Amino acid sequence: MLEIKNLHCKLEEEDKAILKGVDLTIEAGKVHAIMGPNGSGKSTLSYVLSGRDGYVVTDGSATLEGENILDMDPEERAAAGVFLAFQYPVEIPGVGNMTFMRTAVNAQRKARGQEEMSSAEFLKVIRAKAKEMQIDADMLKRPVNVGFSGGEKKRNEILQMAMLEPRLCIMDETDSGLDVDAMKLVADGVNALRAPDRAFLVITHYQRLLDHIAPDFVHIMADGRIVKTGGPELALEVEKNGYADILAETA
């Protein structure tokens, strides 16, 4: 589904190389986790794939089901099925959560040539999905993320993901700042969205999230490259021994 080949990028303002030849293939229906020390390029990879400003691709390619997403604007990538869950979801004062989600859903449906959802249809669907994910219906009436706890913000993003039904879900340290109960609720929401035609790229520092979202593959990233790939046992190795041994192996 996602094919990344020899991807290089730098910071636009500092002319500093961050990604230095990332190669990664993510198949439909699979969950890939990326771990690595601070500054290894994990979050930068998520930003480059989603089209965030401030990064310049200097070499390589990234294709989603054969389409080159690097040539697309962020909204075009979203319409193609790319979703990024942020480490720190932003607050949008004055914009109702329900209005925001319906606008996003219908914008994507329109871009794909689909009929827009009516208010009644949207309300029925979002209430059902919120109930499945144990999200209080009152959250839907509040401004986007305003006054939400860390766990509520993350669950709200998972609800957005459920409504938008992306093909590629990129999760940038979604477990950051969550307590155990909130993390489990988020993980349950992610697991409910696993499907044969959907892939996940989960970026995390900690094994604890992967206890709940069992990945098919774990990749270790260091100095802008993926230096080691394995199964779930690789995350356990990192949890037990840290990155030093792995980095020494690949030096």
UniProtKB/TrEMBL annotation:
<keyword id="KW-0547">Nucleotide-binding</keyword>
<dbReference type="InterPro" id="IPR003593">
    <property type="entry name" value="AAA+_ATPase"/>
</dbReference>
<protein>
    <submittedName>
        <fullName>Fe-S cluster assembly ATPase SufC</fullName>
    </submittedName>
</protein>
<keyword id="KW-0067">ATP-binding</keyword>
<dbReference type="InterPro" id="IPR003439">
    <property type="entry name" value="ABC_transporter-like_ATP-bd"/>
</dbReference>
<dbReference type="InterPro" id="IPR017871">
    <property type="entry name" value="ABC_transporter-like_CS"/>
</dbReference>
<dbReference type="InterPro" id="IPR027417">
    <property type="entry name" value="P-loop_NTPase"/>
</dbReference>
<feature type="domain" description="ABC transporter">
    <location>
        <begin position="2"/>
        <end position="248"/>
    </location>
</feature>
<dbReference type="Pfam" id="PF00005">
    <property type="entry name" value="ABC_tran"/>
</dbReference>
<comment type="similarity">
    <text>Belongs to the ABC transporter superfamily. Ycf16 family.</text>
</comment>
<dbReference type="GO" id="GO:0016887">
    <property type="term" value="F:ATP hydrolysis activity"/>
</dbReference>
<dbReference type="GO" id="GO:0005524">
    <property type="term" value="F:ATP binding"/>
</dbReference>
<dbReference type="InterPro" id="IPR010230">
    <property type="entry name" value="FeS-cluster_ATPase_SufC"/>
</dbReference>
